[in-house]
From TrEMBL, chain A:
Gene3D superfamilies in alphabetical order: P-loop containing nucleotide triphosphate hydrolases
PANTHER family: ABC TRANSPORTER I FAMILY MEMBER 6, CHLOROPLASTIC (PTHR43204:SF1)
Organism the protein comes from: Mariniflexile gromovii
Presence of the UniProt keyword RNA-binding in the record: no
One Pfam family here: ABC_tran
Domain of life: Bacteria
Domain ABC transporter residue range list: 2-246
Similarity section: Belongs to the ABC transporter superfamily. Ycf16 family.
Keywords (A to Z) from UniProt: ATP-binding, Nucleotide-binding
Protein name in UniProt: Fe-S cluster assembly ATPase SufC
TrEMBL record, chain B:
Residue ranges of domain SUF system FeS cluster assembly SufBD N-terminal in the record: 22-167
Family: Belongs to the iron-sulfur cluster assembly SufBD family.
Domain of life per record: Bacteria
Pfam families, alphabetized: SUFBD_core (PF01458), SufBD_N (PF19295)
Protein name: Fe-S cluster assembly protein SufD
Ranges where the SUF system FeS cluster assembly SufBD core domain occurs: 174-404
Taxonomic source organism: Mariniflexile gromovii
Length: 250, 437
């Protein structure tokens, strides 16, 4: 589904990603871990198409198609979704109106008519129930004044609405209380199928107890320096990153 | 002959046409002298530093309509808020159009300035209110000198006017260039409530210069909601002079939606002459091309315990220019005043300009005054966030701009106006915002 080869990316001539290789197949869950500042969010943003980052070398293909020239919205239309580490506040646009616009623009791009209002309401009701989101919440301005946990839950609500092929969850667990973590993870698992894939970026093993990864990668200094199965996450939880840094620097 | 000479020379002929034996006669004569002395404002005047009338004044305007013109309702229906029941006072090239209007004398007066100025039964109101709020500046004086037609609205006390009143000025372009001097008088007595919508619309590309004066008096506990929809052709210039004199506990709000025209200057003045008054001034400006919109506001706090709220948002594209000049005066007696002013702007082109200047003159010591202005670009991280959800760049921009103006839109009390404005905004931005309000 997603294939990244020797990806280098920089911002304002500062190299951040320095040769990433990663292949994610349909039906898989990949976890990316790594110290602060190692480039995890940057990788997520580059996959989603943030123009601020310049791809200086390498390839990104999505379902066999080179997407590195595509605009963020075009990637979204193809099924790429990023749950932001820091969701952006957009005062004046309600959650509902935002989602209606996102869904109908995606449909428009596929040559479909707008979703009938009735179906839209039904979909919103269904997905907000899945994530146990209060109705009142949906008429509030997007992310404005939302608590950290509310923002993250709202990201997964959006994911549930858009049903992406590839979901990248950037520290979706941070800021969630224990109950919310379970609800959100449960939401993600409900949406999982053999046809889609998830990349989970996290610092903690906790989330991976719920969303069980097939592969765990360690990103350090802009490179994936170690990959393994889910037991690697346990090892990191126990030992931290020093041993990996030593291995790399040796 | 330049425009000033032409106007002063036509004054005698104009005065001869109208009844000369009235209080208004003296007012007009005094006014033309003021205009003659001061002339059109120039950039040398502090209040006109950023707005030049030069290019507007060089046209050869016809200063009186030569004949009565008619238009079909269906051709102009779109300029009306037509999905709700309203009173309409409509003018074509400065002349009243009974055909397009729906006036009333049933318990309230929604009618014409020309009758109010001439019929004895209105005399008392005219003598008490006419030209009692307008300043003696040159442009309001010019209007006063030539004032003969416009909307006259008198709401007696304890009356909740159910239907909004629309005041619409059309110009047909039947003359090569037209100058109009509309004059509105609105008197709202104790405990009454009225909603008014005003619009100036040119129907061709022939130049139109409108120098309008509106005087509004809100008596004790009266409520007035006033909406100005400015979305005119690129050849139309509007100088709007609005004066609102408020008595105790009255609540007045003016929303100005400035989307079009060649040049628009809004002189909006509030005078608080009583206690516990609330004044609201809000505006959304979205312009492009070489358009110019200037908001020049004044809130004069004269008595204690009053409030004023100003919130102006501006989005400027292409080579457009905006001006916001907001003056707040708090007199020594006006203790416990609460005055708020905000002016936020987004420049979406390198060539667009905004000049924003708050002016606070505070002579009382126990007051709360806050003001702030910002000038920025569209938030890049918000743009990426929206685009990553599948909303294309153009639509994402539009949504952000709509959201930016939403604060002002949210206080519009007539849903049909809100819808209309949202549509105009979407149109302006060339998108179909995927939802209704
Ligand atoms: N727009 C930018 N301008 C300048 N530096 C940037 C920019 N974006 C990222 N960086 C830098 O790139 C490096 C990687 O940042 P990134 O956000 O990808 O890290 P991360 O692995 O997600 O960290 P964390 O675990 O703290 O979220 C950091 O040093 C960061 O400061
Ligand atoms: Mg990060």
């Amino acid at each position: 589904m997603l294939k990244i080869e020797n990806l280098h990316a920089s911002v304002e001539d500062k190299a951040i990603l320095r040769g990433i290789n990663l292949e994610v197949k349909a039906g898989e869950v990949h976890a990316i871990m790594g110290p602060n500042g190692s480039g995890k969010s940057t990788l997520a943003s580059v996959i989603a198409g943030k123009e601020e980052y310049e791809v200086t070398e390498g390839d990104i293909t999505f379902n066999g198609e080179d997407i590195h020239e595509l605009a963020a919205e075009e990637r979204a239309h193809k099924g790429v979704f990023l749950s932001f580490q820091y969701p952006v506040e957009i005062p004046g646009v309600s959650v509902t109106n935002f989602m209606k616009t996102a869904i109908n623009e995606t449909r428009k791009a596929k040559g479909l008519e707008d979703m009938p209002a009735k179906d839209m309401l039904k979909l919103i009701r269904e997905k907000s129930e899945l994530l146990e989101i209060d109705r009142k919440f949906l008429s509030r301005s997007l992310n404005e004044g939302f608590s950290g946990g509310e923002k993250k839950r709202n990201e997964i609500f959006q994911m549930a609405m858009l049903e992406p092929k590839l979901a990248i969850l950037d520290e979706t667990d941070s800021g969630l209380d224990i109950d919310a973590l379970r609800i959100v993870a449960n939401g993600v698992n409900k949406l999982k199928s053999k046809d889609n894939a998830v990349i989970v970026i996290t610092h903690y093993q906790r989330l991976l107890d719920y969303i069980v990864p097939d592969f765990v990668h360690v990103l350090y200094n802009g490179r994936i320096v170690k990959s393994g199965g889910k037991e690697l996450a346990h090892e990191l939880e126990e030992k931290g990153y020093d041993w990996i840094k030593e291995e790399v620097n040796a | 002959m330049d425009l000033k000479e032409k106007l002063t020379a036509s004054f005698l002929a104009f005065e001869n046409q109208v009844d000369t034996d009235t209080y208004v006669h003296d007012v007009r004569n005094e006014a033309i002298k003021i205009f003659e002395e001061k002339g059109f404002p120039t950039k040398k005047e502090e209040a006109w530093k950023y707005t030049s009338l030069n290019s507007v004044l060089k046209e050869d305007y016809s200063v009186f309509p030569k004949k009565e013109n008619a238009i079909e309702y269906n051709d102009v229906k779109k300029y009306f808020i037509h999905d709700i029941d309203t009173f309409n006072v409509v003018f074509i090239d400065g002349k009243y159009s009974s055909h397009l209007s729906q006036t009333t004398h049933d318990g309230l007066d929604v009618c014409l300035m020309s009758s109010a100025l001439t019929k004895p039964k209105y005399r008392l109101i005219i003598e008490n209110y006419f030209n009692k709020a307008a300043t003696k500046d040159s442009l309001p004086s010019l209007n006063t000198a030539f004032s003969s037609e416009g909307a006259y609205i008198h709401i007696p006390k304890n009356k909740l006017v159910q239907k909004p009143i629309q005041i619409i000025y059309f110009s047909t372009g039947n003359e090569a260039a037209t100058m109009l001097q509309p004059r509105n008088l609105i008197v709202v007595d104790e405990n009454s409530h009225v909603q008014i919508i005003e619009r100036h619309q040119s129907l061709t590309d022939n130049p139109v210069l409108t120098n309008s004066v509106t005087e509004i008096f809100t008596n004790k506990r009266a409520i007035v909601d006033y909406y100005k929809i400015q979305n005119d052709n690129q050849s139309a210039t509007l100088i709007d002079n609005t004066f609102i004199k408020q008595k105790q506990e009255s609540v007045a709000s003016v929303h100005t939606f400035a989307f079009g025209g060649k040049l628009v200057r809004n002189n909006l003045n509030f005078y608080q002459t009583g206690e516990r008054i609330e004044s609201t001034l809000k505006g959304v400006t979205i312009i492009g091309d070489k358009q110019h919109v200037d908001h020049n506001t004044l809130v004069h706090h004269i008595e204690p315990n009053c409030e004023s709220h100003q919130d102006y948002k501006g989005i400027f594209g292409e080579n457009s220019t905006g001006v916001f000049n907001g003056k707040i005066i708090v007199e020594k007696e006006a203790q416990k005043t609460n005055a708020f002013q905000a002016n936020n702007n987004i420049l979406i082109s390198d060539k667009a300009t905004i000049n924003t200047k708050p002016q606070l003159e505070i002579f009382a010591d126990d007051v709360k005054c806050s003001h702030g202005c910002t000038i920025g670009q569209l938030d890049e991280s918000a743009m990426f966030y929206m685009r990553s959800r599948g909303i294309p760049e153009k639509e994402a921009k539009a949504l952000l701009m709509y959201a930016f103006s939403n604060n002002v839109l949210s206080s519009v009390k007539i849903p049909e106006i809100k819808q209309r404005i949202t549509k105009i905004i979407a149109n302006k931005l060339g998108v179909n915002i995927g939802f209704d309000l």
